[in-house]
User: What shape does this take?
Amino acid sequence: MQLGLIGLGKMGGNMRERLRRAGHTVVGYDRNPDLSDVKDLAELVEKLEAPRTVWVMVPAGNATQSVIDELKDLLSAGDTVVDGGNSRWSDDEKHAAELGVKEIGFVDAGVSGGVWGLENGYALMVGGSKEHVDRLRPVFDALKPEGPYGYVHAGKVGAGHFSKMVHNGIEYAMMQAYAEGWELLEKVKSVDNVREVFRSWQEGTVIRSWLLDLAVNALDEDAHLDKLRGYAEDSGEGRWTVEAAIDNAVPLPAITASLFARFASRQDDSPQMKMIAALRNQFGGHAVESAKE
Assistant: This one.
């Protein structure tokens, strides 16, 4: 099958390679000419036979919208656009409607697998009409891991990105739990080999997971993570998960707390704790520490 692929970064580039290994023809475009197969999107579309499929792997928001706008003018009725980036699910219906005016199909694909996907495959959560999704099944089969799992047609347009968003929210909470356990183990004097404690959990325990394996990898590289700063960004999907929970009145205490923990990691000196220290001093005469010079 032929496929145009826009965005050849760490994931997009590996996806191109995995698809080619499976025998598919992939024409890739990236703003970096060293990575790109063509000079622009017009040339990419010209190289594809109708009905065309173009897979978009660029950052969510303005970047994705810009590509959708350009493809709308380049593609024809019967073609299909797949958004495989981390777009907000609420943008999918808008993009589907914009492309639908020209009878161009739209599929949203939540993709998980990171830098390991080339060899291990990508978990795919797909949203869209059965007609559009079924036509792309050879592509999904090539990208997914071997075996019966790793792919789902989750529902109508938006369902793929919504499912991936919830996946990432769960990921936030799982990482936070491992991080809290690691910090507590590091804190006590009786445990003197925290890395090997984590390693011992990799087999036979109910908390074994790929994230745990990655934690052990990280500790093998830096036993006490001394080389790292305690600062963590968030991609946006954690926030969207919490917002969706509020909109649907679904309690997500663990995921919400893990998101707020990332916010706290960016504060060198917590403004909230200043107020708490001041209040404890006011009502109880508790000692306070002076601000650092």
Notes: The chain has a mean pLDDT of 94. The chain has two domains: 2-156, 165-265.
